[in-house]
Amino acid sequence: MWPTTVLLLLLPHLFSSTDTGNNTNFNQSEIVNADFSDAAFKGQKPHRGVKDRDTCSIPCDITVKLLRDEKHSVCGQLQQSLLAFGRSTRKLIRDVMEEQQKALDILSTQVTELMTKVQTLSFEVQRSNTEIFSMKHVESHGRDCSDIKDSLVSVVPKIPSGIYIVHPENTDSSFEVFCEMDYMGGGWTVMQRRTDGLTDFKRPWIDYVDGFGNLAGEHWLGLKKVFHIVNQKDTRFQLHIALVSHDDITSYASYDDFKLDSETQFFSLHLGRYAGSAGDAFHGYDQEQNQDTAPFSASDVDNDGCNPFCSIGNRTVESCSTQHNHTGWWFNQCGLANLNGCYEDTEKNQEQRMNILWDTWRHNGVPHSIKSVTMKIRRIVTNN
């Protein structure tokens, strides 16, 4: 059976068509009288009045046209559906992107707020630190470690070693030092310590003047600070050098009078009489090796007396600091001592005189390989 819509489209053609079997013209009333009720359309049997009537046939060209029209209709509906689906998909993508952008905006705002809080906190910490350091000046514990020991010995049963604040006479500032209170009666101010090689002593002049390192570990106190300590009024200081080799042999060298000149004289060294078991490497074996009264030198400030060069063995040396791993010391044509040398235990460096050097401390004619060294100063009791 044809759908109702198809039959309605065929009506004009049926009105003009003829019955090929009987050559009888159909008029409108006859067609109307035909039983095209809803029951027929729904597959029910026709009334008896049209029982013997021949079923009409539809020409092929009309069928093709109907199918084409139906296809065009279906295609149109499909195109409309695709367009609607595309519009809904684009809208969905646009909505998702908008939601993602909103989430990113919220996240960006939260990050900005967090950064602002961090900056504010950092500013508060800096301000607190500034307030702490701008507070009233901390009172020093004494003029030097010897003075601290003398002032505490009567009230403290055992004075601990550690970091103390000192304020030498005739100076405008206080600074921290490490005081050894257990070694040989205590009262020692440590001016240099090498123990593990963690602090690099390859430094320029300004670092040796101001000091560097960790006071509780390896460090160089600073020429300016040592100058202020040892040049106090009516004082004399002893210099003590404690040495330990890589095979754990200990030795020492001591000088009963130790002073430094001012910076304008490059902190020239002045030593008194020697005592000890490591040999007098500072004075050496002859005047050319004598480092007493020598000014301090560094890689960028050359006062070593090698003009234009020095001869050490079969080698020509233009700079003792460069020869000694760019470290600073009281060089005099290089000499026999440099306790700031390279912290390594290699035969090659021993030959090139780069290691921590105290050449007069020997075993079977060969200088000991030094593992650790401490330079410390202490007041000497005077009659003044």
From TrEMBL:
Residues 136-381 form the Fibrinogen C-terminal domain. The keyword Transcription does not apply. GO terms for molecular function: extracellular matrix structural constituent; protein-macromolecule adaptor activity. It comes from the Eukaryota. It is found in: Secreted. It holds the Pfam family Fibrinogen_C. GO terms for biological process: blood coagulation, common pathway; fibrinolysis; platelet aggregation; positive regulation of heterotypic cell-cell adhesion. One of its GO terms (cellular component) is fibrinogen complex. Its main location: secreted. Keywords: Disulfide bond, Glycoprotein, Secreted, Signal. Residues 1-20 form the signal peptide. Transmembrane segments: none annotated. NCBIfam families: GGGWT_bact. This is Angiopoietin-like 5. It comes from Mastacembelus armatus. The lineage of its organism: Eukaryota, Metazoa, Chordata, Craniata, Vertebrata.
